[in-house]
Specification:
7-stranded mixed beta sheet; alpha/beta
Length: 334
């Protein structure tokens, strides 16, 4: 099968289209014919090992010290069709359209096929939303699950003021929509070119961080979701109302330590760290999508053989929503 193979740490040129062995499902796995996957900022960080050093060292120890060994194909989310099932699989049958997040242990969606466990310890898999294309559905699992995890953990309530910093990307666009679904008044922050999209998906207020003081312009808020981790931490926490919650998916080590202390002494809660994907949460997202409550924003699509170009584009920081890799076009038969 064709796959985009990751041969070294570094720029997008380390990605190469190659032929590798097609996987076969074990008794508890499904074999998925990948229709579409994505390239996210997280994929680019992993490719070049550009993560913060406190995360990079254990990640490199897991993946390979000098070059990728344990993981040689990138990509952490997909939409596709079940081609075969192991003998113990009960939730899926051949031909089922599915979408999934792989988790770090099973990265490898930039390929024509992948095997995933029906009930994964890490990651999530569910039937694809009936009202979404494969390209639209492929962009849901990573961003949707991260956004849902943080907003549920923060127990966002109707009438609360929520600020989403980095609202125009993979996680942020779903955070805006989910916060609106929970009844919040939402301020979305990103660069100017992304603001029309953010208004279109329901943001009540938008702030161009290149032109305005984000925290000064927002006033006091109940929840700050700093998706990109770039707000000044102390000032952000001070701007929260009493009982407020500060959420960050990308905490720096200093914030990890200060956040615990701040949660103890300030009457405000700091929620940080990566979400753990759960199949029931992915199924919840599917229901919201089928009810018309969530939609995917697609910036550009690339064929599988242009995955390196997709990485280059994502690294410009200009993407609005999601960048999609089309592996098997929807009109293509198995």
């Amino acid at each position: 099968m064709k796959a985009v193979v990751w041969t070294a740490y570094g720029p997008p040129d380390v990605l190469h289209l190659d032929e590798i062995e097609k996987p076969a499902p074990t008794d508890d796995e499904v074999l998925i014919r990948v229709r579409a996957t994505t390239v996210t900022a997280g994929d680019c960080e992993m490719r070049r090992m550009g993560n913060p050093i406190w995360y990079r060292l254990p990640l490199r120890a897991y993946v390979g010290v000098t070059k990728p060994k344990r993981i040689t194909v990138l990509g952490m989310e997909l939409a596709g069709d079940v081609e075969a099932v192991g003998k113990n699989v009960t939730r899926f049958v051949q031909g089922d359209p599915v979408f999934a997040a792989t988790g770090i242990a099973h990265v490898g969606t930039c390929a024509e096929y992948i095997c995933l466990r029906e009930a994964p310890d890490e990651g999530a898999i569910a039937k694809k939303p009936a009202n979404m294309s494969y390209e639209e559905a492929a962009a849901v699992p990573v961003g949707g699950l991260e956004a849902l995890h943080f907003l549920k953990t923060a127990a966002v309530r109707a009438g609360e003021m929520v600020l989403v910093n980095g609202a125009g990307g993979t996680i942020g666009a779903f955070a805006v929509q989910l916060a609106k679904h929970f009844g919040a008044d939402v301020t979305a922050v990103d660069s100017g070119g992304k603001l029309p999209m953010l208004s279109a998906i329901g943001a009540d207020h938008v702030i161009d961080y290149t032109r305005e003081d984000v925290l000064g312009g927002a006033g006091n808020v109940d929840v700050i979701f700093d998706v990109v981790g770039r707000l000044p931490f102390s000032r952000a926490v001070r701007s929260l109302n009493r009982g407020g919650r500060y959420l960050t998916a990308n905490p720096r080590p200093s914030i990890m330590l200060r956040g615990r202390w701040m949660s103890i002494v300030s009457g405000k809660t700091v929620i940080q760290g990566a979400a753990r994907a759960a199949t029931e949460d992915l199924a919840s997202l599917r229901h919201l999508i089928e009810e018309g409550k969530l939609r995917t924003i697609i910036d550009r699509t690339f064929p599988l053989e242009q995955t390196a170009d997709a990485h280059r584009y994502v690294e410009t920081g200009q993407k609005i929503g999601n960048v999609i890799i089309i592996v098997h076009p929807q009109e293509e038969t198995a």
